[in-house]
Write a structure and sequence with these properties.
This protein has 1 helix and 34 strands. It is mostly beta strands.
């Protein structure tokens, strides 16, 4: 019988430890999601996963279809992104593994969505067919279909969808001049509350960060519709009626956007549709308290997280510019030109930097919000929407 090769115990221990360390080195260290986000690469149906701390691109997720008007919401833990494509597809992404986990072709034309307060339901707002569809956030199985029917069976395009406390969603019917609240406490039997004749053609909307007010801009008239959601019997009322002051509105080249990012302290900063102005509204009285002339037609009017600055980008022909407003002096402190066709801006969670996409320059710029200097640039194909996981903890995002 041949004697087996015998090694000293100390050598065996050293070899075993080396193998364990080598295995650990080949396994990626677990990371959190707090400094992650995604950038829509609209030309090729791809989403880039980015790290806001290192200001780097971690990788791409392809195969997402038409992203020409894509928007994103995040799961409560920030690990999953739900992408709403213009072609009506809803896709669930794992941004840690950079893989598609679920996908459904839920409509023919969709422009965004929302996720419920508890993270269990994802809702899509649709142009074609008009209405809202609600899905299980884990599986993307359909749990409710709410057609936006009005006027003897016509279907309205749906805009301004936002989450409310509880299992509720609020949204506007552009063609019906209505606002609806859908309570999904029993998902299979949604209860819908309808507010009619709120104003002509509500085009987008915001929920204030505390969930109290829903404000819809009106495309068909000078003014906005407001609902106090804390009132015992909520009613829709008009605010800022006639803000154009009888002047002929300018042609609108790109629809402005409204979201809770426009709220800074007790003021809301809003794009004046058809005008080269930003309106300032007091949230106690809902009266106009100021307006700022700006370089063009505002599209996004966004407050830095601390409320000290307002950043504004514009429709064509001024869509290469971004202007920064100081909320204390109400003065424009800087006009930036980060690149042609600025489409989106997103602040880092605490607002020390803002990321700006310039579609036609194939560029994302990272700008220091104190010095207004460019910190870095990322080369990405046709970037548009930028969405960070910090949105997961905010209502109406």
């Amino acid at each position: 019988m041949t004697n087996a090769l015998r090694l000293p115990l100390s050598l065996l221990f050293t070899l075993s430890l080396s193998l364990i360390l080598a295995a650990c080195a080949s396994t990626p260290a677990p990371i959190g999601t707090g400094d992650l986000g995604v950038v829509i690469e609209r030309a090729n149906g791809t989403v880039a996963v980015v790290n806001t701390s290192t200001q780097t691109v971690l990788g791409d997720i392809p195969g997402l279809g038409d992203l020409s008007h894509a928007s994103v919401v995040f799961s409560r833990d920030g690990a999953h992104a739900y992408v709403f494509g213009r072609d009506g597809a809803l896709t669930k992404l794992n941004i840690l593994t950079r893989q598609i986990e679920a996908r459904t072709q839920q409509a023919g034309n969709s422009i965004g969505g929302a996720i419920s307060q508890d993270g269990r339901l994802v809702a899509a707002q649709n142009y074609e067919p008009g209405g809202v569809k609600v899905f299980d956030a884990q599986t993307l199985a359909l749990v409710a279909d709410i057609p936006a029917e009005y006027d003897a069976g016509k279907l309205s395009r749906v805009v301004g969808l936002a989450d409310l406390p509880g299992h509720r969603f609020i949204f506007s019917l552009f063609d019906a001049d209505q606002i609806w609240i859908a309570d999904l406490s029993t998902p299979q039997k949604p209860a819908v509350q309808k507010f009619k004749q709120v104003g002509h053609q509500p085009y987008d909307a915001l929920v204030t960060p505390n969930g109290r007010y829903y404000i819809a801009g009106l495309f068909g008239e000078d003014g906005l519709a407001l609902i106090d959601l804390w009132a015992p019997q909520p009613q829709a009322r008009r605010i800022l009626q006639g803000y154009g002051r009888g002047q002929q509105p300018l042609p609108v080249y790109k629809m402005p956007h409204l979201r809770g990012w426009a709220v800074a302290g007790r003021q809301v900063w809003l794009p004046a549709i058809g005008r080269h102005e930003v309106l300032i509204v007091d949230t106690d009285t809902w009266q106009e308290v100021g307006r700022i002339p700006v370089a063009g037609q505002p599209v996004f009017v966004m407050a830095r997280p601390d409320g000290r600055q307002i950043w504004v980008n514009f429709a064509v022909p001024d869509y290469h510019r971004v202007q920064v407003i100081d909320t204390q002096s109400r003065q424009i402190v800087q006009t930036l030109e980060p690149g042609k066709a600025v489409l989106h801006m997103e602040f880092t969670p605490r607002g020390e930097a803002v990321w700006i996409s310039s579609r036609d320059a194939n560029l994302v710029s990272v700008i220091d919000t104190q010095t207004l200097q460019t910190l870095s640039t990322l080369s990405l194909p046709s970037p548009s929407g930028i969405f960070f996981t910090s949105r997961a903890a905010r209502m109406g995002f």
